[in-house]
Amino acid sequence: MKIEMTRIGILENELPPRCRIDYHGRAIFSDFLKYLVEEYGPKLTAALFEKDQLKPHIVILLNGRSVRALPEGINSPIKDGDQIVFSIMIDGG
Amino acid sequence: MAYGYSGKILVVDLSSGVHQEQELSDIMIKRYVGGRGWGSLLLGEMVSRGTEPLRPGNSLLFLTGPITGTPAPGGSKYVVVTKSPVSGGFCDSYSSGRLALEMKAAGYDGIAIKGKAKEPSVLSINDRKIEILPARDLWGQDTFQTETFLKGKFGEDSGTACIGPAGENLVAFASINSDYFRQAARGGVGAVMGSKNLKAVVVRGTGGVRCYDGRRLVEMVKEYKARLTGSDQAQRRMKYGTPLTLNITNSLGMLPTRNFQESVFPEATGEIDGDGFLKNVIRHRGCIGCLIACSKISRVEKGEFAGDTLEGPEYETLAMLGSNLGVANRAAVIRANLVCDRLGLDTISAGNALGFLMECFEKGFMRGWPKIDRELKFGDYRFGIELLHRIAYRRGIGDLLADGVRLAARKIGQGAEDFAMQTKGLEFPAYDPRAGYGIALAYAVSPRGACHRRAWPPRIELLGNLPPDTIEGKPEIVKEMFDENAIFHSLLVCDFPCKMAPLKVKDFAEYLQVISGIPFSESDLWSLADRTETRIRLFNLREGLRRAEDTLPRRIFEEALPGGPRKGARIHREQFERMLKSYYRLRGWDEEGIPLPETLQKLALPSSEDYSFPGKT
To answer: I want to staple B509 with a disulfide (CB 3.0 to 4.6 A). Which of B59, B195, B480, B522 is the partner?
Structure first.
């Protein structure tokens, strides 16, 4: 499946700003995340996780919805054409 | 007098030319602390029920807080409080600027301005020397010209607040400007200042703020600096400023586009978003004493707007004068921002007014309307910029928009009110409330009208762990956010350093203790918030703003978002009503939004007999 990935204001040294990833693993978001870590190296793990938990200020959107708020959270299913955004928690603008 | 405070409010009557000093009372300090809290107390006392906002009976308050002028984070802000010509209710509008520090240095925690000057005037405060000076030559000058003149006459270090032509012409969304690019912009405060024939306030002071425990204060600021250095959020805010928000709202499907007809604007990517904006940034700038420096100076290097330089645009402006008008031309947004700043117009409401008119043209509602020489279409930034001038000078079609979208829609008729995006007359900020139920509730119950400064629920319901399209938990988070901001805005600190470091209410309770020497607890501050919000509610009820005003335009309830991640989303009326009732209950108000007697007693507020609620019976 093809996954569209964008980063907004973070992970400048870890991920490209925008790319389409050809992913052949299990269609679960957490597996896709593991794939990304394998692909882009341990720096990405350090940037995203703290003690195996997603850092509080990291925001991940799956098709415009916060992964944290999805019923299955980080184990949500993914499919071809999904859009994933990595961003930072903001508070107003 | 407690440390941290100057101890006095200067009361100036422009009609008589008389001024007096009012001592801060124990109640003002211990129960209302400053800023918004004081505004809630003083406005009701100074402005009689039913006073027309643009008549001399209204008061215009410039207020600081105990943190102002100290080394504590974010303490260079002031708030303007008045009865709004837009809503007819309580209005608080915030700005940062040297004015705040100079007021404290001159020995005043606040300036309360009553009456109306006989001719255009400048109020000059030089320590305790108070003068109302004629300013006929300044009337008609834009805000930059005015400030440059004032700095030349009174000194570069003066604190200033002034209006532009929009304020002179009583435009409903006229701002009060400080330091060229900072505005108390919302709710028509500039029109109130204009109605008083007051072109500017200039303050210079030679005093300072005494802090109770300076040593501990310095330690706390050092701890804060360390916290900022370790905060990824703060670092990102320093790098991108608020424009990064546009990338996020666009990704979430909540970016106002073409007068809130849509909520995604793909053309924004790399143009008017954080990444695009960075291409024009030439340097960073912070408010006085702020370490985050989230503000950016941007410059247009080429094209039809080459040479334009300003501080900004902020997110709200990029969205409301960009995507909301179907404009993805960054230089054009910068020009529109600059024009608004010089004329003294609120960019949020100006963007709403233009977007609203564009949709009226699109729907054919303007056929036969007098004094129209040209149709305004989405994307037409050139005519849009020209219309900003016509609004400020109330020329032709500009006069229609100058009273805000609510009144413009009433005049246009044909159902235009359905898409006049406002609550209580105040135009929407740059978040489509259909994207999240919490935003919808926050807009509806905000006392000054649709407001993003009282609460920002997207942090939890779109970026956090609550789903956007449910009502569960939303009244609770909206109340908590309201209360937290009520505390910050009473201490009068900027909420950005608070939220990015982060600094919590507990931290500020300690700051307040260390500065004032009064043993404030965290719980005292949460009580202050409850008291302030209920007091403001009482003011609005007294002025006739009731439950029916706590609502949203028909579009939000009946038109689903047509595309993007939130495609199909709208706010269901029945669910909205349930949230509203829950919110009232959490506040200790009845189902009509009227504070219960036991709530008034608990908050040490006057009994309801002191207020007559029009229409209650």
So the answer is: B522
